[in-house]
């Protein structure tokens, strides 16, 4: 996933979408719909998620009613699920890079608007759960404040108007097809950050498609660049996961010299949905052996309809035996790059080794080395842990 068209237009203002772009709304929406449908004896299929991303609440409700042949009108269904969502607003987590982007633009004085198909009151409720968000936007436009939601350009045009600027000075950041269409129709520059990997082709009308907010390069648009990359790595808010090492897909990675100790992705589907696919690094602890440098890939597993990701940590150490079943704990503290396609196996292997060298070196920087002593890695397992 890389830049699609050469970029020449400079902008001064940024308009961001909320759900799926700044917030991991899908994960909460999936949980709510799953349990609602279960009570009706129906099974939520993550494929339906593709039909609700970026739609207005009523459109999304209509899609679910139709897909599951529910015995309600779309309005009735919407009124039944709205309170379930309202209970969960503060459980919706920011997506990777959202806080970083907001802080960066705000501290550099770049005017920023929020433009979402959700009603204004829902937007306000959602962002009130996140420190510093509300004050960072000089305008907030909800779907109920204009005649037509996205894919109509109205929301974005209204956002530009409220920032007292021209559409041509605005850069839109969007995850959905409807949002990209709306941004194009508003004659704004559009960066697409797909929340559903399968939609990448449909987003190609954007000026640029990036893997995640972590990969934004605002300087391409004449905006201040991020200053936080260090030696080819980006420090991220650390996250910690662990569990017994399980059998992977038997891809024979040991033959390639790159064994990856798999954790059960199912146990981490929520935390993984917040984190973009890509190459990360950090520290790995094996309960009986020690703490090692680690580089890992988070990726989409084609066998799971593109909603489940796998975690593939490669410990940067030579072991003389396997350690299946042992407790493995990871502190993931830095990002290197998006997942990419390679023309050949050799080039893939070469790139993984290069990522390994980048991680190996970066982990000696005091900033990253400090996490080697994280209690999560160094504390023994509690007795009760099973
Ligand atoms: P699988 O598909 O079962 O994960 P791999 O070929 O990826 O098989 O090998 C991974 C296994 O190899 C790990 O589960 C672990 O037991 C072992 N192993 C040996 N050395 C390493 C290493 N440096 N990093 C990760 N796993 C290793
Ligand atoms: Mg493996």
UniProtKB/TrEMBL annotation:
This is riboflavin kinase. Pfam families: Flavokinase, Hydrolase. GO terms for molecular function: ATP binding; hydrolase activity; riboflavin kinase activity. Keywords: ATP-binding, Flavoprotein, FMN, Hydrolase, Kinase, Nucleotide-binding, Transferase. It comes from Rhynchospora pubera. It is an enzyme of class 2 (transferase). SUPFAM superfamilies: HAD-like, Riboflavin kinase-like. SMART domains: Flavokinase. It comes from the Eukaryota. Pathway: Cofactor biosynthesis; FMN biosynthesis; FMN from riboflavin (ATP route): step 1/1. InterPro entries: HAD-like_sf (IPR036412), HAD-SF_hydro_IA (IPR006439), HAD_sf (IPR023214), PGP-like_dom2 (IPR023198), Riboflavin_kinase (IPR023468), Riboflavin_kinase_bac/euk (IPR015865), Riboflavin_kinase_dom_sf (IPR023465). GO terms for biological process: FMN biosynthetic process; riboflavin biosynthetic process. NCBIfam families: HAD-SF-IA-v3 (TIGR01509). Its EC number is 2.7.1.26.
